Amino acid sequence: MVEKFCDSTFWNSSFLDSPEADLPLCFEQTVLVWIPLGFLWLLAPWQLFRVFRSRTKRWPITKLYLAKQALVGLLFVLAAIELILVLTEDSGQATVPAIRYTNPSLYLGTWLLVLLIQHSRRWCVQKDSWYLALFWILSIICGTFQFQTLIRTLLKGNNSNLAYSCLFFICYAFQILILILSAISEKDDSLNVRL
Length: 195
What we know:
The structure is a single chain. By secondary structure, the chain is an all-alpha fold. Helices cover 67% and strands 0% of the residues. The chain is elongated and about 55 Å long. The model has no long low-confidence stretch (mean pLDDT 85). Residues 15-153 form the ABC transporter TMD0 domain. Keywords: Membrane, Transmembrane, Transmembrane helix.
């Protein structure tokens, strides 16, 4: 069933026996994408409930907050672009596997959730979120496998999915930047803007 969803093999142990051991693309695009997203969505209600129960005053907007929000906003735009690419590809004669629709749609919802969580952290005494930092770490670790698979595919001269590869590389770089920004502690370099 998963093979139909991805239009490729989900798991085959012979992939790991080759000199260039690679996980199957279907596994990389399902399990390794959905683990960090599932982590975020499972813990989000707890995170948001705690924040909205808090009675502390709202903190001013900082440059770090704006940088994080801008990068996640760009991730949202890139997910929308990927979904538009899939829709235009599907309007042609090619059949597009369901995973091509599912992942950008999940990412659109996830990036909105991250924007909401980051915004809601302004009401917390502790501005930094271990929960979001762990999400970014999981996302980067799980994305590493698809990153190296795409690099190997491009080095072999297969440029059939160049647009999707470029979008993935840009998103991956933004996620690394956000992880680095998450390691920086919030301090009061506010812009004195209240939203």
